[in-house]
Design a protein that fits this description.
It is a single chain. The chain is mostly helical. Helix content is about 50%, strand content about 10%. Strands 2-1-3 form a 3-stranded antiparallel beta sheet. The protein starts with 19 loop residues before the first helix and ends with a helix. The chain binds manganese (III) ion. Manganese (III) ion binds next to helix 1.
Length: about 200
C-alpha cells in the first residue's frame, strides 16, 4: 500500500515563496488524502497493488471500471504531488545547459518558454496543473484538469506546477500570476534535467 512520502526539505524551507502553513496543509492534508483514497480504491484488487504507481496511472483504461475515476483522481493526485515536491528546492541551481538548449530549440528562447508556460497556467479554469512534458522527443507545455497526470495522455512529465487554489490561496489569494512568478525561482532544475535524460534514454 502507498504511504505519504516525506518532503525532501523542511516545511518552512520554501519560504518566502511558499509559506510553511501552505506546505503543512498541502502535504499533510491534501496529499495524504490522495494516498489514503488511492489505497481505499485499490484495496479490493490485490493484483493491482504489486504494480508501480506510474504503471497504474499510465494505464487507467485497463483498470476495473468501478475504480477508474477514483484512481484517476487519487492516483493522479499522489503521483503529481510526489513529483511536485521533488521539483522544488530551497537551493535552486541554474538550468543545466543540455536542458536549456532543448527548451530554446522548442520554444525559441527561455523568455518565450516562461511566458508560454505562465499563459498556459493562467488559462487553467478551475483546478488543474500546468506541465513541461516530453511527447516522444518533443518538449511541450500542457495543462491537465483536476489531478489528471500527463502520463494519462502518454506524455512524460518533467515539471508540473499545481494551480489548484489550495496550492497558493492562503498566501497569494487570487494572485495566481504572482504565485507563478515566485515559484519559478525555486524549481529544482537538476531534478527536472535528470527526468529529461531518463525519459530520453528510455526511448
Ligand atoms: Mn495540490
Amino acid at each position: 500500500m502507498y504511504t505519504l512520502p516525506s518532503l525532501p526539505y523542511a516545511y518552512e524551507a520554501l519560504e518566502p515563496v511558499i509559506s510553511a502553513d501552505i506546505m503543512h496543509l498541502h502535504h499533510e492534508k491534501h496529499h495524504a488524502t490522495y494516498v489514503e483514497q488511492l489505497n481505499n480504491a485499490l484495496q479490493p484488487y490485490p493484483e493491482l497493488q504489486n504494480r508501480s504507481l506510474e504503471d497504474i496511472v499510465s494505464h487507467i483504461d485497463d483498470l476495473p471500471e468501478d475504480i477508474r475515476t477514483r484512481v484517476t483522481n487519487h492516483g493522479g493526485g499522489h503521483h503529481n504531488h510526489t513529483l511536485f515536491w521533488e521539483s522544488l528546492t530551497p537551493h535552486p541551481s541554474p538550468l543545466p545547459t543540455e536542458l536549456e538548449n532543448a527548451i530554446i530549440a522548442a520554444f525559441a528562447s527561455l523568455q518565450e518558454y516562461e511566458s508560454a508556460f505562465k499563459k498556459s497556467a493562467l488559462s487553467v479554469f478551475g483546478s488543474g496543473w500546468t506541465w513541461l512534458v516530453l511527447d516522444g522527443h518533443k518538449l511541450l507545455i500542457s495543462n491537465t484538469p483536476n489531478q489528471n497526470s500527463p502520463l494519462m495522455s502518454g506524455h512524460i512529465p518533467l515539471v508540473g506546477i499545481d494551480v489548484w487554489e489550495h496550492a497558493y490561496y492562503l498566501q497569494y489569494q487570487n494572485r495566481r500570476a504572482e504565485y507563478l512568478d515566485e515559484i519559478w525561482k525555486i524549481i529544482n532544475w537538476n531534478v527536472v534535467h535528470e527526468r529529461y535524460q531518463k525519459a530520453l534514454s528510455s526511448k
